[in-house]
Design goal:
Number of domains: 1
Helix content: over 70%
Distance between the termini: 55 Å
Shape: elongated
Largest sheet: none
Radius of gyration: 23 Å
């Protein structure tokens, strides 16, 4: 009998007092195991990329799945985000007679935070769930074991192309999302305040500096890596048949979204110090 099973037996049989400590300890062990497995997979992936073990054919296919097929979703979110921001700030700034400067706030908000974060969340929802479901199905159907039996490395074959595609495509999607979000804000600002298009664009140029744009784009490289590695890990550790695939898909989106928000805070503090 394992140590964990022995602790569970003692907690349930001898005294209910031990039950909370058992549950807390169990959660801590599960969290530690998850972080350790994720870290090991990350090291193997980075090592494979450093040794040039990247399949061009598989990577290009993943670029299409991650980048091209996600562009319509991220751009749609971006344009309505810009429009909503403009509406809210026009109403708020009008109380102080400053509605003409809506473009400045919209530009900074989108380039520094909303563009990168919302794009990453959409990639996590669409791409992360797809990767977890695909690899989860391969795991429960023992296709991953078949790859190992043939002498191939599942990390190089399955994980590296997906992680590389997520890491490189997320910044590209963010660049387009920033531009489209700013244009969406321009439409509402011009309609609601009566300023000209050139005036709005001049406000953007005056306020949004290179470090604002670079800090937002730089974060998305990390977001993309986190999305790819979390989705791959969830897929490769799937258990329990088709029901397990569903759980892995859900956990992939939830954990990736939480990781994006937590890492966003620390990366923002870091890049504020760097840029």
């Amino acid at each position: 009998m394992s140590d964990l099973a022995e602790i569970q037996k003692i907690a349930s049989r001898e005294s209910p007092f031990y039950a909370p400590f058992y549950l807390v300890g169990k959660k801590v062990l599960q969290f530690t195991e998850y972080v350790g497995g994720m870290s090991l997979l990350s090291v193997k992936t980075v090592s494979s990329v450093a040794r040039h073990f990247v399949s061009p054919k598989d990577t290009v296919a993943q670029f299409e799945f991650v980048g091209w097929k996600s562009a319509s979703l991220t751009n749609l979110i971006a344009i309505f985000t810009g429009m909503v921001l403009a509406v809210q700030f026009v109403v708020g700034l009008k109380r102080f007679g400053l509605q003409l400067y809506t473009g400045q706030i919209v530009g900074i908000a989108i380039t520094r935070e909303l563009g990168p974060v919302l794009t990453a969340l959409m990639v996590a929802a669409r791409v992360g769930s797809g990767i977890a479901a695909e690899l989860g199905s391969m795991t429960v159907s023992e296709q991953v074991l078949a790859i190992e039996a043939m002498g191939a490395n599942p990390v190089r074959k399955l994980v590296v192309p997906r992680v590389v595609a997520c890491t490189l495509c997320t910044p590209i999607l963010t660049v387009f999302a920033n531009i489209i979000g700013i244009l969406g804000g321009m439409v509402i600002t011009v309609m609601e305040t009566g300023v000209g298009v050139q005036y709005y664009l001049d406000q953007i140029k005056l306020t949004v500096e290179h470090q604002d744009y670079l800090s937002g784009i730089s974060k998305t490289f990390f977001f993309g890596f986190f999305i790819g590695i979390i989705a791959c890990y969830q897929g490769l550790t799937t258990k329990g048949g088709t029901a397990g695939v569903g759980r892995a898909t859900t956990l992939s989106v939830v954990i990736a979204s939480i990781t994006i928000f937590i890492s966003d805070f620390f990366l923002t503090k870091l890049f504020l110090a760097v840029f």
